[in-house]
Amino acid sequence: MAEAQACGLPVIGVARGGAVDIVEHEQTGWLLERQSVEELRRLIRRAAAEDLDRDAISARSERFAENRFRRELRRIVHEVVAA
Fold first, then answer.
1. Which of 5, 69, 79, 82 matches a 20 to 30 Å C-alpha distance to 54?
2. Angle, vertex CA 40, rays to CA 35 and CA 44, nearest 5
3. pTM, rounded to two decimals
4. Nearest CA to 53 among 3, 8, 6?
5. Which residues contact 24 (CB under 8 A, 6 or more apart)?
6. How many other C-beta atoms lie within 10 A of the C-beta of residue 5?
7. Could you tell me the residue range of the domain that residue 25 belongs to?
8. In sequence order, what are the residues at sequence separation of 6 or more whose Cβ sits closer than 8 angstroms to the Cβ of residue 2?
9. pLDDT tens digits, one per residue of 11-51
10. 37 CB contacts (<8 Å, ≥6 apart)?
11. Residue pLDDT, tens place only, 55-82
């Protein structure tokens, strides 16, 4: 999901687990509240009809970028060592 969003593509995911952390409902994609064929069809139709901001989706995916992860990890290590 994060890789698709890095390309500016919205995703549809189940409103559980990692998808909840990755997908911002109606901003970077859509979350299925119930796992059903009808609900999936509804969201696929919605995704086909709506245009979400590709640049905003891509920018939001930076939360999962390797350089951000390394920077945040260094910051936490420095805080722990300083304490």
1. 69
2. 160
3. 0.77
4. 8
5. 60
6. 25
7. 2-82
8. 22, 61, 64
9. 999 999 999 999 999 999 999 999 999 999 999 999 999 99
10. none
11. 999 998 888 888 888 999 999 999 999 9
Two tokens at 72?
Answer: 């945040």
> Total structural domains in the chain?
1
What tokens does 54 get? 């590709």
Q: With 0-12 CB in 10 A as exposed, 13-18 as middle and 19+ as buried, what is 67?
A: exposed
Contact yes or no for 12/42 (Cβ under 8 A): no
